[in-house]
């Protein structure tokens, strides 16, 4: 079944369903089956989606809102005619539950299943394609039958590195979310290794949660939550209490955490479009101070959040006076330079280069931007580019000893890499030579054997002539 314009996506596993052949040849047999075994799984019990379990799944969790699920399915009309099948395509279908990516019947039905379960759903038109149908295969006002196997499911990854995974237990209300700077009121229950270590109500400002002992992973999830939502957050140690752990809760270093979070209420911070230029400039100065405070405390992720707010507010602004324009430029330069420095500490070198480039677009001879970009390029083994940056630094400030030292480092690294390459290629050519020699030996041996056989045959032939 494809929901609206959804297309199938590869998933894990290719197990085929155990279908009962011959049961769905007409509407009478379908009606009889569901009358006998069907379970109404709709919340209002209108029999819009009825379910028959064909094979029990593994005991345990069922998919939650937002989870990514992988299924195999076959869709049929009541007359038994098949209109779609992932099995025929030999490709599991995936979608995120409760996000409107598929028909309502699927969002309801799949959340009732356990991993490995096989079942059949009978879906009324209002839970499928309704009055319009999905021509040419599905006529208007069609009830549908789906045979479904739940292969696997996983939570929604909120970060590219998979460090924060969310599973929604209770969907929130409305269409707005807290933003950076919003004040949120939440209930938290944190656990580590199955042990609950804290349970409390707390208020904090998004982007500053660690000030009240709330891990960064919870802070970063706020922007995805809605009022009234209850979710589980699975935090890798990087987004929890990190390498230091939390002595207060008897949590050691590099521990993964699970938080159940209820967003009780929030007040959004002003968006950029709600502020005039003077207010943006005033707030940028305050935010810069916060960022510097976090940087000095080695809380680089929090510092990044503050400096990025300045960029968000000011990067599209043009001052009406020279004084305002100069203030905008000065704040943007500081924000990008400090972002580059934070990302250097976080070893995210592509972001370092991006922010330095922003500065260099404004000030081509900015010493700090050139130096930090050179450092990032050195770490990425882009030695020639790094040397170019450090030499540019020396053109701007000939007394910059650090740039001189870095050029020496780059040149040494280039020699080391050159020597490594020579060894690699020497070994490669040696292996080629050894292979060629082996092939030549085998060829000589084979040719020698052939020659011996020919000689033997000739002798045998002569002996026969003599007799």
Kindly provide the radius of gyration, computed on alpha-carbon positions and rounded to a whole number of angstroms: 33 Å
Shape, per Cα inertia axes = extended
Q: Specify the number of helices.
A: 11
From the N-terminal CA to the C-terminal CA, the straight-line distance is 85 Å
Provide the β-strand percentage band: 15-25%
| Low-confidence sequence ranges | 1-23, 462-467
Number of strands: 13
Largest sheet: 7 strands, antiparallel
Instruction: Supply the helix-strand structural class.
Output: alpha+beta
Helix content: 40-55%
Mean pLDDT: 88
Order of helices and strands: HEEEEHEHEEEEEEHEEHHHHHHH
Verbal overview:
The chain is an alpha+beta fold and 467 residues long. The strands form two sheets. Strands 1, 2, 3, 4, 5, 6 and 7 form a seven-stranded antiparallel sheet that branches. A six-stranded antiparallel sheet has the order 8-9-12-13-10-11. The chain is built from eleven helices and 13 strands.
SSE diagram, text form:
Layout: H1 27-37, E1 39-40, E2 49-55, E3 68-77, E4 82-85, H2 86-89, E5 93-96, H3 104-110, E6 118-123, E7 144-154, E8 156-157, E9 164-170, E10 183-192, E11 195-205, H4 216-221, E12 230-235, E13 257-267, H5 277-296, H6 300-314, H7 322-345, H8 349-362, H9 367-379, H10 383-396, H11 401-466
Antiparallel strand pairs: 1-2, 2-6, 3-4, 3-5, 3-7, 6-7, 8-9, 9-12, 10-11, 10-13, 12-13
Give a brief description.
With 467 residues, the protein is α+β, with helices and mostly antiparallel strands. 42% of the residues lie in helices and 19% in strands. The strands form two sheets. Strands 1, 2, 3, 4, 5, 6 and 7 form a seven-stranded antiparallel β-sheet that branches. A six-stranded antiparallel β-sheet has the order 8-9-12-13-10-11.
């Amino acid at each position: 079944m494809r929901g609206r314009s959804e297309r199938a996506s590869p998933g894990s596993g290719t197990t085929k369903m155990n279908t009962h052949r011959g049961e769905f040849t007409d509407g009478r047999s379908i009606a009889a089956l569901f009358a006998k075994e069907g379970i109404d799984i709709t919340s209002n019990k209108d029999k819009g989606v009825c379910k028959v379990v064909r094979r029990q799944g593994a005991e345990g969790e069922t998919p939650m809102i937002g989870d990514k699920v992988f299924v195999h399915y076959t869709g049929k009309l009541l007359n038994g005619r098949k209109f779609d099948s992932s099995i025929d395509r030999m490709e599991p279908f995936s979608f995120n539950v409760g996000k409107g990516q598929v028909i309502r019947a699927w969002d309801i039905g799949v959340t009732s299943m356990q991993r490995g379960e096989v079942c059949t759903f009978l879906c009324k038109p209002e839970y499928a394609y309704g009055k319009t149908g999905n021509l040419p295969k599905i006529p208007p006002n069609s009830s549908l039958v789906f045979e479904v196997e739940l292969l696997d499911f996983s939570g929604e990854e909120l970060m590219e590195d998979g460090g924060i995974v969310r599973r929604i237990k209770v969907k929130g209300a409305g269409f707005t979310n807290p933003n950076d700077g919003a004040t949120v009121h939440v209930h938290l229950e944190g656990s580590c290794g199955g042990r609950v270590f804290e349970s409390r109500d707390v208020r904090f400002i998004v982007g500053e949660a660690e000030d009240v002992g709330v891990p960064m992973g919870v802070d970063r999830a706020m922007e995805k939550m809605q009022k009234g939502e209850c979710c589980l957050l699975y935090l890798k140690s990087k987004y929890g209490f990190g390498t230091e752990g939390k002595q207060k809760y008897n949590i050691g270093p590099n521990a993964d955490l699970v938080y159940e979070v209820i967003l009780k209420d929030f007040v959004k911070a002003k968006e950029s479009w709600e502020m005039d230029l003077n207010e943006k400039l005033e707030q940028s100065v305050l935010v810069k101070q916060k960022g510097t405070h976090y940087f000095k405390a080695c809380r680089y992720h929090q510092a990044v959040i503050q400096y990025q707010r300045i960029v968000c507010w000011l990067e599209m602004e043009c001052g009406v006076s020279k004084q305002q324009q100069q203030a905008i430029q000065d704040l943007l330069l500081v924000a990008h330079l400090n972002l580059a420095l934070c990302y250097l500490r976080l070893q995210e070198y592509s972001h370092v280069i991006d922010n330095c480039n922003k500065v260099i677009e404004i000030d081509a001879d900015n010493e700090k931007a050139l130096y930090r970009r050179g450092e990032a390029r050195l770490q990425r083994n882009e030695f020639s580019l790094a040397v170019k940056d450090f030499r540019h630094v020396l053109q701007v400030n000939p007394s910059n000893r650090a740039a001189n030292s870095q050029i020496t480092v780059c040149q040494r690294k280039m020699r080391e890499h050159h020597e490594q390459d020579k060894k690699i290629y020497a070994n490669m050519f040696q292996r080629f030579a050894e292979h060629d020699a082996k092939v030549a030996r085998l060829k000589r041996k084979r040719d020698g054997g052939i020659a011996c056989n020919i000689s033997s045959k000739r002798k045998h032939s002569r002996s026969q002539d003599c007799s």
